Amino acid sequence: YDDQQIDFRDSKKTDRYQRVWGWLNNRDLLLMHESSQDNFGNVFYDNLYLVTVNKAIVDTLFSADVSKGEIISGAYVTPNDSILLIHLHHKPIIKDDKGWFYSPLDILILDLKSKKLLGQIENFYSYNIHYRQSSSYIFSRDGQSFVYSISDERNWNTDVKENYHSLNRKENGIYIYNLVSKVHQKIIDEGVDPIWSPDGNTIAYSENRKVWFYNIKNTEKTLL
Fold first, then answer.
1. Nearest Cα to 171, choosing from 78, 85, 89, 100?
2. Burial status of residue 116 (CB atoms within 10 A of its CB: 0-12, 13-18, 19 or more)
3. What's the pLDDT score for residue 32?
4. Minimal CB count within 10 Å: which of 80, 101, 164, 223?
5. What's the DSSP call for residue 140?
6. What does the pLDDT average to over 203-219?
7. Residue pair 62/72 in contact by the 8 Å Cβ criterion
């Protein structure tokens, strides 16, 4: 780049962007999504695929409506490969009455086999939702619940600088959301990056740079 100057404003090159979200748990199929956009930020498509190891697309699971500013930002499948959670962000970014800028997040609940939409969690903690980048370990063993954390460690700008670390502090903690009852249950006051053990009895998470275990049955916390 030292010997030439490129003016990207005159370029309309369209690129493909791909991201993986994990393997299905019981089949050698990769869950990934691909989008196409130019250097002006115009998005032409944003699709979620199932792909074989031979690079063949088996199925198109979901297509975001890019005309409405929809963007796929996450995908998670239950341990039995039956339910798919899709994170769907919306643009443009919104500024709320407290001065925070955020992109609204909906979570779509999709039947993986029929691709039928089973439900939708709208405006799901748009500010500071955290997940592990894992396809199955956010879910309980029966696949009926998933675990997530809320943290106010945010990086984007706000007009309320003096309240940067205090806004929405009450939301912080680790939660379980039940897909059947549609209830959020707070289980731990602090912590991030929760993951469920394969036997369903323990949630491991990070707090103050240390690893903790939370026992689902007796609600006890132990330090590793």
1. 100
2. exposed
3. 92
4. 223
5. -
6. 93
7. yes
pLDDT of residue 100: 61
Summarised one tens digit per residue, pLDDT across range 128-144 is 455 554 556 889 988 89
100 DSSP 8-state letter:
B
Token pair of 64 as six digits:
């975001």
Residue type present at position 125: Y
| pLDDT for 125 | 54
- Of 205, 88, 81, 188, the C-alpha closest to 143 is 81
Phi first, then psi: give them for residue 216, nearest 5 degrees.
-60, -40
| CA–CA–CA angle 96, 181, 107 (5° rounding) | 40
Strands across the sheet containing 129-130: 129-130, 145-150, 173-178, 183-188
Q: Which residue has the higher pLDDT, 22 or 1?
A: 22
Give the pTM. 0.73
Say whether pLDDT at 164 is over 50.
no
Q: Cβ-count burial of 126 within 10 angstroms (0-12 exposed, 13-18 middle, 19+ buried)? A: middle
Residues of 1-17 as b/e, b for ≥16 C-beta within 10 angstroms?
Answer: eeeeeeeeeeeeeeeee
- What are the start-end ranges of the E strands in the chain? 14-23, 30-38, 43-51, 57-63, 70-77, 83-90, 94-95, 101-102, 105-111, 117-121, 129-130, 145-150, 173-178, 183-188, 192-196, 202-207, 210-215, 221-223
